[in-house]
Amino acid sequence: MKFSRRQFNRLVLAALGTAVLPISAQALQQDHDYTLIVPPQPGDVAGKIEVLEFFSYGCPHCMEFHPLVKQWSAALPPDVDFRRVPVSFGRAAWANLARLYYALEYLDELPRLDDAVFDAIHKQRAGLFTDKAIQQWAERQGVDGNRFRAIYDSFDMNIRLKRGERLTQSYKVQGVPLLTVAGRYAVTGQSARGYGDLLRIADLLITQARG
Q: Which residue in 68, 64, 169, 58 sits closest to 121, CA to CA?
């Protein structure tokens, strides 16, 4: 789902607690609150309910959604495995941002620099869309340049990128941010009044997946 800036400002107010969906797990409506993923996709961790967030650092709505989903995912119960999947949609710039995400993840720098990437692109208007610009930015943040370049251009990086692309295609992702649950449900929330409503729908789908 995509929003104008004015619409999004209203959605943020709702996400902060001014709106609560009057629905239960039993009242979720297929093709309204969620769509089925066909065919269902397997998860990576046996015995866990996998929740994926498809996103891109280049997406302004992903930036706005990020603090909400970050707080929400940190409180998920132990039987839920949350992972993020950067998408490119065939855009070279977004593919480079996916490389940046995976490189920071590999180097254990995501906790420190995840928010900073969003801020650099959308608030500071830094053009982090080329390999050179990304590598220079990472070094300015105190990341070891040699280690960063080694993983950024590595064989393992290419494998991660290809796997992310396969997931994007298998889940039929057409827009971001997008949450999926248990490889079976994609949160749509057509009547959602805020991103907080999307998270509440995801909570209910997690409950539904347990059943």
A: 58
